[in-house]
Design brief:
InterPro entries: YcjX-like. This is ATPase. By secondary structure, this protein is an alpha/beta fold. It contains 17 helices and ten strands. It has a seven-stranded mixed sheet, with helices on both faces. It has a three-stranded antiparallel sheet with strand order 8-9-10, with no helix packed on it. It is globular, with a radius of gyration of 24 Å. The structure holds guanosine-5'-diphosphate. Guanosine-5'-diphosphate binds next to helix 2.
Protein backbone atom coordinates (compact mmCIF):
# COMPACT_ATOMS: atom_id res chain seq x y z
CA UNK A 1 0.00 0.00 0.00
CA UNK A 2 1.48 3.40 -0.95
CA UNK A 3 1.94 6.13 1.65
CA UNK A 4 -0.87 8.11 0.04
CA UNK A 5 -3.25 5.14 0.22
CA UNK A 6 -2.21 4.53 3.84
CA UNK A 7 -2.94 8.13 4.84
CA UNK A 8 -6.28 7.99 3.00
CA UNK A 9 -7.22 4.78 4.77
CA UNK A 10 -6.15 6.14 8.15
CA UNK A 11 -8.04 9.39 7.74
CA UNK A 12 -11.09 7.45 6.58
CA UNK A 13 -10.88 5.20 9.65
CA UNK A 14 -10.45 8.28 11.81
CA UNK A 15 -13.47 10.07 10.37
CA UNK A 16 -15.58 6.92 10.76
CA UNK A 17 -14.64 6.74 14.40
CA UNK A 18 -15.20 10.43 15.12
CA UNK A 19 -18.56 10.30 13.40
CA UNK A 20 -19.39 7.19 15.43
CA UNK A 21 -19.76 5.23 12.23
CA UNK A 22 -17.96 2.15 13.37
CA UNK A 23 -19.45 -0.83 15.15
CA UNK A 24 -17.92 -4.08 16.39
CA UNK A 25 -20.53 -6.77 16.76
CA UNK A 26 -19.63 -9.96 18.66
CA UNK A 27 -21.45 -13.17 17.76
CA UNK A 28 -21.17 -16.09 20.12
CA UNK A 29 -22.94 -19.17 21.45
CA UNK A 30 -21.98 -22.70 22.43
CA UNK A 31 -20.93 -25.16 19.69
CA UNK A 32 -23.83 -25.98 17.40
CA UNK A 33 -25.91 -23.01 18.58
CA UNK A 34 -25.96 -21.55 15.06
CA UNK A 35 -23.16 -18.92 14.87
CA UNK A 36 -21.96 -19.91 11.40
CA UNK A 37 -25.49 -19.94 9.96
CA UNK A 38 -26.26 -16.66 11.76
CA UNK A 39 -23.28 -14.68 10.44
CA UNK A 40 -23.69 -16.11 6.95
CA UNK A 41 -27.33 -15.01 6.95
CA UNK A 42 -26.59 -11.62 8.53
CA UNK A 43 -24.03 -10.82 5.85
CA UNK A 44 -26.25 -12.11 3.07
CA UNK A 45 -29.23 -10.06 4.31
CA UNK A 46 -27.06 -6.93 4.45
CA UNK A 47 -25.60 -7.45 1.00
CA UNK A 48 -28.64 -8.84 -0.88
CA UNK A 49 -31.72 -8.55 1.29
CA UNK A 50 -32.58 -4.89 0.90
CA UNK A 51 -36.21 -5.56 -0.05
CA UNK A 52 -38.71 -4.00 2.38
CA UNK A 53 -40.94 -7.09 2.08
CA UNK A 54 -38.04 -9.26 3.16
CA UNK A 55 -36.82 -7.17 6.12
CA UNK A 56 -39.94 -5.18 7.10
CA UNK A 57 -38.88 -4.47 10.67
CA UNK A 58 -35.45 -3.04 9.74
CA UNK A 59 -36.29 0.67 9.57
CA UNK A 60 -33.54 1.75 7.17
CA UNK A 61 -34.77 -0.84 4.63
CA UNK A 62 -38.48 -0.25 5.25
CA UNK A 63 -37.98 3.50 4.75
CA UNK A 64 -36.05 2.79 1.53
CA UNK A 65 -32.95 4.55 2.87
CA UNK A 66 -30.66 1.52 2.61
CA UNK A 67 -28.22 1.81 -0.29
CA UNK A 68 -26.56 -1.59 0.10
CA UNK A 69 -23.74 -3.36 1.87
CA UNK A 70 -20.42 -4.68 0.73
CA UNK A 71 -17.99 -7.16 2.25
CA UNK A 72 -14.53 -5.60 2.51
CA UNK A 73 -12.11 -7.84 0.68
CA UNK A 74 -9.04 -6.41 2.37
CA UNK A 75 -8.45 -7.56 5.89
CA UNK A 76 -5.28 -7.78 7.99
CA UNK A 77 -3.61 -11.07 7.10
CA UNK A 78 -3.07 -11.96 10.75
CA UNK A 79 -6.83 -11.93 11.39
CA UNK A 80 -8.75 -15.11 10.46
CA UNK A 81 -11.50 -14.21 8.00
CA UNK A 82 -15.06 -15.54 8.37
CA UNK A 83 -15.54 -17.69 5.22
CA UNK A 84 -18.88 -16.25 4.11
CA UNK A 85 -18.41 -17.00 0.39
CA UNK A 86 -17.65 -20.71 1.02
CA UNK A 87 -20.59 -20.95 3.41
CA UNK A 88 -22.96 -19.56 0.79
CA UNK A 89 -21.61 -22.11 -1.70
CA UNK A 90 -22.62 -24.91 0.68
CA UNK A 91 -26.15 -23.53 0.75
CA UNK A 92 -26.25 -23.40 -3.05
CA UNK A 93 -25.36 -27.07 -3.52
CA UNK A 94 -28.01 -29.46 -4.79
CA UNK A 95 -29.23 -30.62 -2.34
CA UNK A 96 -28.13 -27.72 -0.12
CA UNK A 97 -26.05 -28.52 2.96
CA UNK A 98 -25.27 -26.57 6.13
CA UNK A 99 -21.86 -24.87 6.16
CA UNK A 100 -19.20 -26.26 8.54
CA UNK A 101 -19.36 -24.86 12.08
CA UNK A 102 -17.16 -22.30 13.81
CA UNK A 103 -13.88 -23.68 15.17
CA UNK A 104 -12.17 -20.59 16.54
CA UNK A 105 -12.44 -16.84 16.23
CA UNK A 106 -12.75 -14.99 12.94
CA UNK A 107 -13.81 -11.61 11.65
CA UNK A 108 -15.47 -10.02 8.68
CA UNK A 109 -15.87 -6.33 7.91
CA UNK A 110 -18.63 -4.75 5.88
CA UNK A 111 -19.39 -1.25 4.71
CA UNK A 112 -23.08 -0.38 4.88
CA UNK A 113 -24.35 2.62 2.90
CA UNK A 114 -27.57 4.43 3.69
CA UNK A 115 -29.29 7.81 3.62
CA UNK A 116 -29.53 9.33 7.08
CA UNK A 117 -33.12 10.08 8.15
CA UNK A 118 -32.56 13.00 10.46
CA UNK A 119 -29.96 15.38 11.85
CA UNK A 120 -26.94 17.09 10.44
CA UNK A 121 -25.86 14.02 8.53
CA UNK A 122 -29.14 13.93 6.63
CA UNK A 123 -28.73 17.60 5.63
CA UNK A 124 -25.03 17.49 4.76
CA UNK A 125 -24.54 14.06 3.24
CA UNK A 126 -26.42 12.33 0.47
CA UNK A 127 -24.88 9.06 1.61
CA UNK A 128 -23.66 7.88 5.00
CA UNK A 129 -21.55 4.85 5.82
CA UNK A 130 -21.39 2.49 8.74
CA UNK A 131 -18.32 0.26 9.06
CA UNK A 132 -19.46 -2.99 10.63
CA UNK A 133 -16.98 -5.49 12.05
CA UNK A 134 -18.42 -8.88 12.86
CA UNK A 135 -16.43 -10.95 15.35
CA UNK A 136 -17.24 -14.64 15.66
CA UNK A 137 -15.91 -16.58 18.65
CA UNK A 138 -16.89 -19.79 20.47
CA UNK A 139 -19.13 -19.35 23.53
CA UNK A 140 -16.98 -22.02 25.20
CA UNK A 141 -14.33 -19.32 25.65
CA UNK A 142 -16.73 -17.30 27.82
CA UNK A 143 -17.20 -20.36 30.02
CA UNK A 144 -13.57 -19.88 31.08
CA UNK A 145 -14.18 -16.53 32.79
CA UNK A 146 -15.18 -18.06 36.16
CA UNK A 147 -11.79 -19.81 36.27
CA UNK A 148 -10.28 -16.42 37.12
CA UNK A 149 -12.21 -16.52 40.39
CA UNK A 150 -11.11 -20.05 41.36
CA UNK A 151 -7.78 -21.62 42.17
CA UNK A 152 -6.70 -24.94 40.69
CA UNK A 153 -8.01 -26.96 43.64
CA UNK A 154 -11.44 -25.28 43.44
CA UNK A 155 -11.55 -25.91 39.70
CA UNK A 156 -10.87 -29.64 40.29
CA UNK A 157 -13.72 -29.76 42.82
CA UNK A 158 -16.04 -27.93 40.42
CA UNK A 159 -15.13 -30.21 37.51
CA UNK A 160 -15.57 -33.46 39.42
CA UNK A 161 -18.91 -32.34 40.86
CA UNK A 162 -19.99 -31.86 37.27
CA UNK A 163 -18.57 -35.18 36.04
CA UNK A 164 -20.57 -37.00 38.74
CA UNK A 165 -23.85 -35.84 37.17
CA UNK A 166 -25.93 -38.79 35.84
CA UNK A 167 -25.53 -37.85 32.14
CA UNK A 168 -21.73 -37.48 32.52
CA UNK A 169 -20.71 -40.13 35.05
CA UNK A 170 -20.24 -43.11 32.72
CA UNK A 171 -18.02 -41.22 30.28
CA UNK A 172 -15.73 -40.01 33.10
CA UNK A 173 -15.06 -43.50 34.54
CA UNK A 174 -12.03 -44.26 32.36
CA UNK A 175 -10.42 -40.90 33.03
CA UNK A 176 -11.02 -41.30 36.77
CA UNK A 177 -9.41 -44.73 36.63
CA UNK A 178 -6.47 -43.25 34.72
CA UNK A 179 -5.98 -40.55 37.40
CA UNK A 180 -6.14 -43.08 40.24
CA UNK A 181 -3.23 -44.99 38.70
CA UNK A 182 -1.03 -41.91 38.17
CA UNK A 183 2.31 -41.45 39.87
CA UNK A 184 1.69 -38.02 41.39
CA UNK A 185 5.41 -37.41 41.87
CA UNK A 186 5.95 -37.50 38.10
CA UNK A 187 5.49 -33.94 36.88
CA UNK A 188 7.39 -34.52 33.64
CA UNK A 189 6.34 -33.08 30.28
CA UNK A 190 5.56 -36.56 29.02
CA UNK A 191 3.31 -37.42 31.97
CA UNK A 192 1.45 -34.10 31.63
CA UNK A 193 0.98 -34.49 27.92
CA UNK A 194 -0.23 -38.07 28.22
CA UNK A 195 -2.92 -37.21 30.79
CA UNK A 196 -3.92 -34.08 28.90
CA UNK A 197 -4.58 -36.24 25.85
CA UNK A 198 -6.82 -38.48 27.97
CA UNK A 199 -8.67 -35.45 29.30
CA UNK A 200 -9.03 -33.99 25.81
CA UNK A 201 -10.59 -37.27 24.68
CA UNK A 202 -13.05 -37.02 27.58
CA UNK A 203 -13.89 -33.40 26.69
CA UNK A 204 -14.39 -34.41 23.07
CA UNK A 205 -16.71 -37.19 24.20
CA UNK A 206 -18.66 -34.68 26.29
CA UNK A 207 -18.70 -32.28 23.38
CA UNK A 208 -20.38 -35.00 21.31
CA UNK A 209 -22.72 -35.93 24.17
CA UNK A 210 -26.05 -34.16 23.80
CA UNK A 211 -26.62 -31.79 26.68
CA UNK A 212 -23.05 -31.65 28.06
CA UNK A 213 -22.45 -27.94 27.47
CA UNK A 214 -20.07 -26.97 30.21
CA UNK A 215 -16.61 -28.01 29.09
CA UNK A 216 -13.53 -26.34 30.55
CA UNK A 217 -10.97 -25.14 29.76
CA UNK A 218 -12.53 -23.88 26.54
CA UNK A 219 -9.24 -23.78 24.61
CA UNK A 220 -8.58 -27.46 25.10
CA UNK A 221 -11.57 -28.19 22.88
CA UNK A 222 -11.27 -25.20 20.58
CA UNK A 223 -7.60 -24.17 20.84
CA UNK A 224 -7.68 -21.56 18.07
CA UNK A 225 -4.15 -20.23 17.53
CA UNK A 226 -2.95 -21.75 20.83
CA UNK A 227 -2.77 -25.38 19.73
CA UNK A 228 0.30 -27.02 21.28
CA UNK A 229 1.03 -24.27 23.85
CA UNK A 230 2.39 -25.83 27.11
CA UNK A 231 -0.22 -24.11 29.30
CA UNK A 232 -2.82 -26.17 27.46
CA UNK A 233 -1.38 -29.20 29.27
CA UNK A 234 -4.10 -28.95 31.83
CA UNK A 235 -6.62 -31.30 33.39
CA UNK A 236 -8.44 -31.56 36.72
CA UNK A 237 -6.94 -34.06 39.17
CA UNK A 238 -9.39 -35.72 41.54
CA UNK A 239 -10.04 -33.21 44.36
CA UNK A 240 -8.26 -35.36 46.95
CA UNK A 241 -5.19 -35.55 44.65
CA UNK A 242 -5.18 -31.83 43.88
CA UNK A 243 -4.67 -30.88 47.54
CA UNK A 244 -1.63 -33.09 47.99
CA UNK A 245 1.08 -30.66 46.78
CA UNK A 246 2.70 -33.38 44.71
CA UNK A 247 5.07 -32.61 41.81
CA UNK A 248 2.23 -33.16 39.34
CA UNK A 249 -0.29 -31.03 41.25
CA UNK A 250 2.27 -28.19 41.48
CA UNK A 251 2.93 -28.31 37.76
CA UNK A 252 -0.80 -28.29 36.99
CA UNK A 253 -1.33 -25.38 39.35
CA UNK A 254 1.34 -23.43 37.42
CA UNK A 255 -0.27 -24.25 34.09
CA UNK A 256 -3.67 -23.27 35.46
CA UNK A 257 -2.37 -19.86 36.57
CA UNK A 258 -0.59 -19.40 33.28
CA UNK A 259 -3.78 -20.30 31.36
CA UNK A 260 -5.73 -17.70 33.34
CA UNK A 261 -3.09 -15.03 32.83
CA UNK A 262 -2.01 -15.75 29.26
CA UNK A 263 -5.21 -17.06 27.69
CA UNK A 264 -8.30 -15.89 29.54
CA UNK A 265 -7.24 -12.37 30.50
CA UNK A 266 -5.80 -11.47 27.06
CA UNK A 267 -8.93 -12.78 25.33
CA UNK A 268 -11.04 -10.38 27.35
CA UNK A 269 -8.61 -7.50 26.98
CA UNK A 270 -7.86 -7.88 23.28
CA UNK A 271 -11.12 -9.15 21.81
CA UNK A 272 -14.01 -8.84 24.20
CA UNK A 273 -13.11 -5.36 25.49
CA UNK A 274 -13.37 -3.90 22.00
CA UNK A 275 -16.88 -5.15 21.26
CA UNK A 276 -19.69 -2.58 21.09
CA UNK A 277 -22.59 -5.01 20.83
CA UNK A 278 -23.05 -8.71 21.35
CA UNK A 279 -25.41 -11.43 20.22
CA UNK A 280 -25.55 -14.75 22.09
CA UNK A 281 -27.24 -17.65 20.34
CA UNK A 282 -28.87 -20.39 22.40
CA UNK A 283 -30.28 -23.63 20.99
CA UNK A 284 -33.05 -24.26 23.56
CA UNK A 285 -34.95 -26.73 21.38
CA UNK A 286 -32.05 -29.22 21.17
CA UNK A 287 -31.65 -29.00 24.95
CA UNK A 288 -35.36 -29.84 25.31
CA UNK A 289 -34.84 -32.84 23.00
CA UNK A 290 -32.05 -34.09 25.26
CA UNK A 291 -33.97 -33.97 28.52
CA UNK A 292 -33.89 -32.59 32.01
CA UNK A 293 -30.14 -32.89 32.74
CA UNK A 294 -29.36 -31.11 29.45
CA UNK A 295 -31.70 -28.22 30.35
CA UNK A 296 -30.13 -27.93 33.80
CA UNK A 297 -26.64 -27.84 32.36
CA UNK A 298 -27.60 -25.35 29.65
CA UNK A 299 -28.95 -23.10 32.40
CA UNK A 300 -25.73 -23.46 34.39
CA UNK A 301 -23.62 -22.72 31.29
CA UNK A 302 -25.72 -19.62 30.49
CA UNK A 303 -25.30 -18.39 34.05
CA UNK A 304 -21.53 -18.63 33.61
CA UNK A 305 -21.67 -16.92 30.21
CA UNK A 306 -23.73 -14.13 31.73
CA UNK A 307 -20.91 -13.31 34.13
CA UNK A 308 -19.13 -11.79 31.15
CA UNK A 309 -21.90 -9.19 30.96
CA UNK A 310 -21.89 -8.41 34.65
CA UNK A 311 -20.39 -4.98 34.80
CA UNK A 312 -20.99 -4.01 38.42
CA UNK A 313 -18.22 -2.05 40.16
CA UNK A 314 -17.01 -5.20 41.94
CA UNK A 315 -17.20 -7.36 38.82
CA UNK A 316 -14.33 -9.53 37.72
CA UNK A 317 -14.29 -7.86 34.35
CA UNK A 318 -14.05 -4.30 35.55
CA UNK A 319 -10.72 -5.33 37.07
CA UNK A 320 -9.45 -6.31 33.63
CA UNK A 321 -10.84 -3.57 31.39
CA UNK A 322 -13.60 -1.07 30.96
CA UNK A 323 -16.45 -2.92 29.24
CA UNK A 324 -18.21 -0.97 26.52
CA UNK A 325 -20.85 -3.41 25.29
CA UNK A 326 -24.00 -1.32 25.10
CA UNK A 327 -26.49 -3.84 23.70
CA UNK A 328 -26.80 -7.59 24.23
CA UNK A 329 -29.22 -9.78 22.34
CA UNK A 330 -30.00 -13.32 23.51
CA UNK A 331 -31.51 -15.20 20.60
CA UNK A 332 -33.19 -18.60 20.77
CA UNK A 333 -31.90 -19.99 17.47
CA UNK A 334 -33.52 -22.43 14.98
CA UNK A 335 -37.05 -21.33 15.91
CA UNK A 336 -38.14 -22.70 12.51
CA UNK A 337 -38.01 -26.17 14.13
CA UNK A 338 -41.23 -25.16 15.90
CA UNK A 339 -44.49 -23.75 14.54
CA UNK A 340 -44.72 -19.93 14.60
CA UNK A 341 -47.32 -19.67 17.39
CA UNK A 342 -44.79 -21.42 19.69
CA UNK A 343 -42.13 -18.72 19.25
CA UNK A 344 -43.45 -16.61 22.10
CA UNK A 345 -43.11 -19.57 24.47
CA UNK A 346 -39.59 -20.19 23.13
CA UNK A 347 -38.43 -16.70 24.00
CA UNK A 348 -40.09 -16.97 27.46
CA UNK A 349 -38.26 -20.24 28.00
CA UNK A 350 -34.96 -18.59 27.16
CA UNK A 351 -35.76 -15.74 29.56
CA UNK A 352 -36.32 -18.27 32.29
CA UNK A 353 -33.07 -20.05 31.49
CA UNK A 354 -31.36 -16.70 31.92
CA UNK A 355 -33.09 -16.45 35.32
CA UNK A 356 -34.42 -13.05 34.34
CA UNK A 357 -31.07 -11.55 35.30
CA UNK A 358 -31.57 -9.03 32.56
CA UNK A 359 -33.79 -7.01 34.81
CA UNK A 360 -31.24 -6.82 37.62
CA UNK A 361 -29.46 -3.57 38.21
CA UNK A 362 -25.95 -4.78 37.40
CA UNK A 363 -26.92 -5.37 33.79
CA UNK A 364 -28.35 -1.93 33.31
CA UNK A 365 -25.24 -0.65 31.59
CA UNK A 366 -26.27 -2.71 28.55
CA UNK A 367 -29.70 -2.77 26.91
CA UNK A 368 -30.78 -6.38 26.57
CA UNK A 369 -33.37 -8.19 24.49
CA UNK A 370 -34.50 -11.79 24.07
CA UNK A 371 -36.06 -13.12 20.85
CA UNK A 372 -36.73 -16.35 18.95
CA UNK A 373 -35.11 -16.37 15.51
CA UNK A 374 -34.03 -18.58 12.63
CA UNK A 375 -31.01 -17.24 10.77
CA UNK A 376 -31.70 -19.53 7.81
CA UNK A 377 -35.28 -20.82 7.78
CA UNK A 378 -35.33 -24.50 6.80
CA UNK A 379 -39.09 -25.05 7.05
CA UNK A 380 -42.28 -23.48 5.77
CA UNK A 381 -45.26 -23.19 8.09
CA UNK A 382 -48.95 -23.67 7.46
CA UNK A 383 -52.02 -25.57 8.66
CA UNK A 384 -53.40 -29.06 8.12
CA UNK A 385 -56.97 -30.15 8.80
CA UNK A 386 -57.15 -32.64 11.67
CA UNK A 387 -60.50 -33.68 13.18
CA UNK A 388 -62.15 -30.75 11.45
CA UNK A 389 -59.72 -28.29 13.02
CA UNK A 390 -56.89 -26.33 11.43
CA UNK A 391 -53.74 -27.60 13.09
CA UNK A 392 -50.47 -25.62 12.75
CA UNK A 393 -47.66 -27.55 11.11
CA UNK A 394 -44.27 -27.14 9.48
CA UNK A 395 -42.95 -28.68 6.32
CA UNK A 396 -39.31 -29.46 5.60
CA UNK A 397 -36.77 -32.11 4.79
CA UNK A 398 -34.99 -34.14 7.45
CA UNK A 399 -31.21 -34.50 7.35
CA UNK A 400 -31.89 -37.93 5.78
CA UNK A 401 -33.68 -36.07 2.94
CA UNK A 402 -37.14 -37.26 3.83
CA UNK A 403 -39.95 -34.74 3.22
CA UNK A 404 -42.03 -34.27 6.35
CA UNK A 405 -45.14 -32.26 7.28
CA UNK A 406 -45.84 -32.36 11.00
CA UNK A 407 -46.65 -30.57 14.22
CA UNK A 408 -43.38 -30.71 16.22
CA UNK A 409 -45.20 -30.18 19.50
CA UNK A 410 -45.59 -27.35 21.99
CA UNK A 411 -42.64 -25.43 23.36
CA UNK A 412 -42.92 -25.07 27.15
CA UNK A 413 -42.74 -21.45 28.29
CA UNK A 414 -41.02 -22.54 31.52
CA UNK A 415 -38.44 -25.24 32.23
CA UNK A 416 -40.36 -28.51 32.67
CA UNK A 417 -39.81 -30.66 35.77
CA UNK A 418 -37.78 -33.89 35.78
CA UNK A 419 -41.07 -35.86 36.06
CA UNK A 420 -42.45 -34.14 32.98
CA UNK A 421 -39.35 -35.12 31.00
CA UNK A 422 -39.77 -38.71 32.21
CA UNK A 423 -43.23 -38.85 30.68
CA UNK A 424 -42.78 -36.67 27.64
CA UNK A 425 -40.20 -36.69 24.90
CA UNK A 426 -39.56 -33.53 22.90
CA UNK A 427 -38.68 -34.09 19.25
CA UNK A 428 -37.78 -30.93 17.39
CA UNK A 429 -36.23 -32.40 14.24
CA UNK A 430 -33.08 -31.07 12.57
CA UNK A 431 -33.83 -30.03 8.98
CA UNK A 432 -31.97 -29.62 5.69
CA UNK A 433 -31.69 -26.05 4.38
CA UNK A 434 -34.27 -25.14 1.73
CA UNK A 435 -33.04 -24.90 -1.88
CA UNK A 436 -31.92 -21.37 -2.43
CA UNK A 437 -30.87 -19.48 -5.55
CA UNK A 438 -27.88 -17.14 -5.36
CA UNK A 439 -28.83 -13.43 -5.21
CA UNK A 440 -32.16 -14.29 -3.58
CA UNK A 441 -32.33 -13.16 0.04
CA UNK A 442 -32.02 -16.10 2.44
CA UNK A 443 -35.32 -17.08 4.12
CA UNK A 444 -35.24 -16.28 7.85
CA UNK A 445 -37.32 -15.70 10.95
CA UNK A 446 -36.95 -12.27 12.60
CA UNK A 447 -33.51 -11.41 11.23
CA UNK A 448 -35.06 -7.99 10.52
CA UNK A 449 -35.78 -7.61 14.25
CA UNK A 450 -32.19 -8.60 15.00
CA UNK A 451 -30.86 -6.04 12.51
CA UNK A 452 -33.09 -3.31 13.89
CA UNK A 453 -32.03 -4.00 17.47
CA UNK A 454 -28.34 -4.26 16.62
CA UNK A 455 -27.91 -1.59 13.92
CA UNK A 456 -31.15 0.42 13.69
CA UNK A 457 -30.07 3.32 15.93
CA UNK A 458 -26.71 3.59 14.11
CA UNK A 459 -28.47 4.03 10.77
CA UNK A 460 -31.01 6.71 11.67
P1 LIG B 1 -22.00 -23.10 15.33
O1 LIG B 1 -21.27 -24.31 15.84
O2 LIG B 1 -22.47 -22.23 16.46
O3 LIG B 1 -21.22 -22.34 14.29
O4 LIG B 1 -23.36 -23.65 14.67
P2 LIG B 1 -23.80 -23.73 13.14
O5 LIG B 1 -24.17 -22.40 12.59
O6 LIG B 1 -22.81 -24.51 12.37
O7 LIG B 1 -25.17 -24.57 13.31
C1 LIG B 1 -25.15 -25.92 13.70
C2 LIG B 1 -26.30 -26.62 13.01
O8 LIG B 1 -27.53 -26.09 13.47
C3 LIG B 1 -26.33 -26.42 11.49
O9 LIG B 1 -25.50 -27.34 10.85
C4 LIG B 1 -27.79 -26.64 11.19
O10 LIG B 1 -28.09 -28.01 11.16
C5 LIG B 1 -28.47 -26.04 12.40
N1 LIG B 1 -28.92 -24.63 12.21
C6 LIG B 1 -28.21 -23.49 12.42
N2 LIG B 1 -28.99 -22.40 12.19
C7 LIG B 1 -30.20 -22.85 11.82
C8 LIG B 1 -31.44 -22.22 11.47
O11 LIG B 1 -31.59 -20.99 11.45
N3 LIG B 1 -32.48 -23.06 11.18
C9 LIG B 1 -32.37 -24.42 11.21
N4 LIG B 1 -33.44 -25.14 10.90
N5 LIG B 1 -31.22 -25.03 11.54
C10 LIG B 1 -30.16 -24.28 11.85
Amino acid sequence: MSLYQKIRQQSREFSQRTLDRHLRLGVTGLSGSGKTAFITSLVQQLTHGDLPAHLPFFAVVREKRYLGGQVNQQQRLSVPRFPVEQNLQHLQQQPPVWPPSTRGWSQLSLTLRYKAATGLRARLQSRSELALNIVDYPGEWLLDLPLLNMDYQQWCEFSWRLFRQPHRQAAANDFEQHLRLLNLQDGSELALQHSTEQYKALLQQYHDTPGAYLNQPGRLLVPGELAGAPMLQLFPLLPEQAGEHSALAKKLEQHYKSYCKNVIEPFYQQHFARLDRQIILVDCLSALNHGYAAMQELQQALQLILKSFHYGPSSLLTRLFKPQISKVLFAASKSDHATPEQHKALSLLLQQLLHQPLKLSHYQSAITEVMAIAAIRASTSGYVQADGLAQPCIRGETLGQKSVTYFPGEVPATIPSAEFFNQHKFEFLALQPISWAEHEPLPHVRMDHVLQFMLGDKME
